[in-house]
Amino acid sequence: MNYFTESNDLLDQPGALRKRLKEDGYLFIRDILPKEEALFIRRCILGFCREEGWLQEGSALMDGLTDHEPLVEGSKGWRPVYAKIQALEAFHRIKLHDQMHRMMEDLFEEPVFALPMTIARIAFPNDNERGTQPHQDWFYVGGSTETLSCWAPLGDVPSEVGGLKLLKGSHKAGFLSAHTAPGPGGHAVDVDPDLEWFQADYRLGDVLIFKALTVHAAADNHTHDVLRLSIDFRYTGQSHSIVEGWLQPHYNWLGEPFTWDTLDKDWRDSPTARYWERLPNIKTKPYEQAVGR
Length: 293
What we know:
Layout: E1 2-3, H1 14-24, E2 26-29, H2 35-51, H3 79-86, H4 89-93, H5 98-108, E3 112-114, E4 119-123, H6 138-141, E5 148-153, E6 163-166, E7 178-180, E8 187-189, E9 198-199, E10 207-211, E11 216-219, E12 228-237, E13 241-243, H7 260-263, E14 283-285
Parallel strand pairs: 1-9, 13-14
Antiparallel strand pairs: 2-10, 3-12, 4-12, 5-10, 5-12, 6-11, 7-8
């Protein structure tokens, strides 16, 4: 396996950090997300999974062990858990963490905006055919091509459990044609099978940051009983534009309960709720592609 280059040594060198991102198409940062908050989110999600019978009877909650048949993202049986995740204030708050914002402002060289749509993935073992296929985020995200995606494990994710993998430097190939494919997003791009993927043994608190045109995919979960939990979110500079659909919750196209009026009703007085409405001059535009799907 090819391992990511860690970039923690460049956090106090913004120019070098920007140069590496431009050259490699990604940055891998260890221990930048607050671990206690990430651990709280993991505990909540696994609690929701246990309530729906997804976890092994008698197993330790935080181990995330399952003997449940894989559920398709978006399916009827999957929705109750995902609605509870999207209604969790901490799930939306973690992307607003000061250390992440400071680093993003160094990368964009201006104030930044965290896109409101935050996405969780619950990857079942023995379901690799429905994992996230190779793709470029810009196909879904639209808006500015400079928008940066962040993927973070919600728990330690060693290589045998999978995690996100990417093709170093693939952003330099420009826009690639997407075609329909199984798995989250429903689309994929064709890549040379001889290209070498890069990956990591992820730890709680790590973040993988990558450009909108960097090709990435989910690595296979080679275990037989471990759920893989992750979160992804995005930033852009406040001078850049976003697609207006990314102001909505993930899976908002399904309607209730995936609306802000339902999801944030118990934490509407929190600074996390509708934070984008307090930011000046957010630039939005429509997008013909159905975003986020």
